[in-house]
Amino acid sequence: QLQAFGGGLVQTGGSLRPSCVASGFNFDDYAIGWFRQAPGKDREGVSCISGLGRDTFYTDSVKGRFTISRDNAKNTVYLQMNSLEPEDTAVYYCAADRHDRIQYYSGIGGYLMRQSDFSSWGQGTQVTVSS
After folding, report:
1. Could you give the C-alpha distances from 74 to 19, 22, 30, 115, 116, in angstroms and in order?
2. CB < 8 Å & 24+ apart, contacts of 53-60
3. pLDDT tens digits, residue range 85-95?
4. Are 55 and 46 in contact (CB under 8 A)?
């Protein structure tokens, strides 16, 4: 089970750090991904981190602004979001990849966040960026 929280309302250029807390499974074995869904749009993959935190992925629109990290002792993944833009407004969800697929692309690239690879979706947390 995953629970996401820590969204909120900020102005353009502001920062937020939502968290995703896990329970009920061996957290270290799972990659964790953040997805988002804006009104009227499809849900998209934003960032992902491998089970041991060695490999990360960011979609192009957030590179250089967002940083994903995890604390396995606390069963928690964080998404530090800086320089937020109105286009970042969405409901943010976290989910788990039990096969930790991102680690197999380490050093070779080409990893894609496919929603079908993830399960145990938590409830979302709303992020709203005002202009």
Report:
1. 11, 9, 14, 25, 26
2. 54/103, 54/106, 55/102, 55/103, 55/105, 55/106, 55/111, 56/102, 57/102, 57/111, 57/113, 59/113
3. 999 999 999 99
4. no
**What size, in residues, is the chain?**
131
Q: Which of 6-10, 72-76, 106-110, 127-131 has the lowest mean pLDDT?
A: 106-110
Q: What is the CA radius of gyration of the chain?
A: 14
Check residue 130 and give its pLDDT.
Answer: 97
Exposed, middle or buried by CB within 10 Å (0-12, 13-18, 19+), for 54? exposed
pLDDT of residue 108: 87
Bridge partners (DSSP) of residue 78 are 19, 69
Type of residue at 76: T
83/27 Cα distance (integer angstroms): 30
What residue has token string 């992925």?
Answer: 57
Contact 22, 32 (CB under 8 A): yes
Looking at residue 122, its pLDDT comes to: 82
Provide the β-strand partners of residue 91.
37, 126
